[in-house]
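Submission sheet (multi-component)
Chains listed below:
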Amino acid sequence: DVKVTQSSRYLVKRTGEKVFLECVQDMDHENMFWYRQDPGLGLRLIYFSYDVKMKEKGDIPEGYSVSREKKERFSLILESASTNQTSMYLCASSPDRGGTGELFFGEGSRLTVL
Amino acid sequence: DQQVKQNSPSLSVQEGRISILNCDYTNSMFDYFLWYKKYPAEGPTFLISISSIKDKNEDGRFTVFLNKSAKHLSLHIVPSQPGDSAVYFCAASARNRDDKIIFGKGTRLHILP
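Outcome: structure written.
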């Protein structure tokens, strides 16, 4: 059974803290993605990666960075958390470049920034 | 500029009736369309897809219709069941250009008893 695992389901952080969101997939997919989901705004792409050590900005990269040191792991980093980064964060992987085929999502990480 | 539009934020349907969720797109380069379903506190799961060379794809209770001339697709669920209550995201991509998927904002479907 294919699996995308996000390390934390729920996090509460304070403004200015550094936040790490980890994602691991066991499907040997080259392509990995970070989205955030907010009510009324749908799924918005933050960053994506087509290969190890490679990263590309999505639609809303400001305030975020990513790390892909190993094929199976894609980390999202909030250097200095702000209240407007309170959201549901979703990691996904795909066998197709660009995620043009099916995306496999993790269960999500609900982040609250106080 | 929103390339994939789901104009109905929510929809309520009686159990056993047909649910129809609509989606419009603006980019004529899109050639692959998908629907995802999302329950609260879970990640989205893939539901059904359709290539632009087809106008209909069916999988059990779920059917997706594509009208390329109108740049419109719809998801039909027949019959609707309580477990279908969720948020449904329409998505599109230009596979021939290796472009990433673009999602709509979602439609929340409520199945009424």
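Remark: Chain B touches chain A through 25 residues (CB under 8 Å).
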